[in-house]
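Quick look at the format.
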Amino acid sequence: MLDSPSRPTSSATSSSGPSTSTRRNRKQGGDGRRKAVNRLVENDLIRRVSYDEYREKVRDVYAGPKGALLATCSMLSLHSPMGERLFRKQKFSLDGTKSILDVGSGAGQIVKHLLKYAPSDARIVGIDLSPEMLRRARQRLRSDRPEFFSADLTHLPFADESFDCVTCGYVLEHLPDPRTGLRELHRVMTPGARMLLLTTEDSFGGAWTSRLFCCRTYNRDELREMCHECGLSWHRELWFSSVHRLLRAGGICVELVKPE
């Protein structure tokens, strides 16, 4: 009689490659090391001082040379032309909007796109914590159409349900707790209003942005949960290009909706 084939031993099974649990542990270890490196690079001022102290530091940063170079940096990093692409390709549509709030207008990078792509009769309002940045925005845009106000995102000087569209570009990372800003944005948005939110992600590139501009970073999943907590639906994630999507680069870019 022929002997029946012997069963593979456990050592033979393991030689075919690492188990699922081993691969998972390696991935978690790699993620942990990346997060540790990012924490070393990130600026942690926002976690060490009071919000009032931090807010004054932000004003100083943007009133100085870094703020003066912000528009140039946005062009060199391709954030400005890629941001325009979102509107030009209607990945974030402005059709039918009547009143648009741009939060953290800076040197007018997003307001410039709103002037070009929003309906001609839409009201465009911009706010920024830094009066000096608003002065630069007015000088750069040379348009009387936008209304600019110096204001804090956590205390917006507008009535409830004032805007049917909001753009918020790289501002939320200047809040120790994003929910204070998200709740205030929810308050001034009309039911059904949409928001284009861009913010710095907890990646290696985001960590260097944090060090340069004294801001924090956000984990994508945690931010999604906080948006839902504040009554804002995470409608869809947007990407500057297919390459950004493939590499998971460019930070967090998402369309939020206030449910009707």
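Next, a different chain entirely:
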Amino acid sequence: MTPIPSNILAYIRRDMRNVPGWLRKGAAELIAEISCAQTEAGIKGDIYEIGVYHGKLTILLALLRSDNERIRVCDVFSDQKQNVDNSGGSETTSCSQFIANVARYLKEDIPNHRFLIDAASSLTLSLDKVEKNNRLFSIDGSHRDDIVEKDFRLAISGLSARGCIIHDDYFNCFWPGVSVAVSKVLLEQKETVAPFLIGFNKYFVCRVSELDWYHKVTESLKVRAKRNGWSVEKSEIFGRSVAIICDKSDVSYYNFHAEYSLHQKLERVVAVFMGRLGVVAGRARRFLAGLVHG
């Protein structure tokens, strides 16, 4: 498989940390690997991103464009009255700040004919605006279930025949509306789209007709993944096979929390014991004082 170009690796491993946001290095590398595999296979199309924050992922996606491909992004930016669930927190950015962030790494003036910006809520988007030829479609906008559902349905409609949807926060316990909405749509359209990869808080979905190809791509990532110290596992979701690639620290997450929970229980036992010991000691002092003064 074609290696990730050096300029993109440099952004992921060096420069990306300087842009605010929650995109993990492992997620960025998985996205880059899939995009390079698409390009090698002759899969062409545009790129769409809902929810950009300060542009951490936007920069990567823009760097992954081929010559005639466009990227289009949608965000409310500083118009926070449209941020109905406060996803992204209070550290918002204006559209002009976002443009400055992205332009710094792309070395081009944006917006332009290959970089388009929809400064609005994703609720205003339609298929006419998104179009149907997106080979990569990232969703990380509102986390409210009704909006997530609309965004996900729009992404499916706007996906090219061999494209891939990258959904954020499906397994994030702080945003249960994401998994509720995405699961609802996947169950309804289980003969149309399905997940093929889970990794680093990203949930990768493609058309059912392309599952075999994307499974081969994820299989080819095993050597590189292990070289990076990642764990590569297989599981099943919605009755279909799915690959899981993550840090080994993520694999031990629940073991850690089980141990931590045990540690907390022991602390409580000791605290109760010491408390009772204190009561006994207090009673002993009062008894001895009574003897002395009696």
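Residues 256-260 have pLDDT under 50 and may be disordered.

See the schema section for token definitions.
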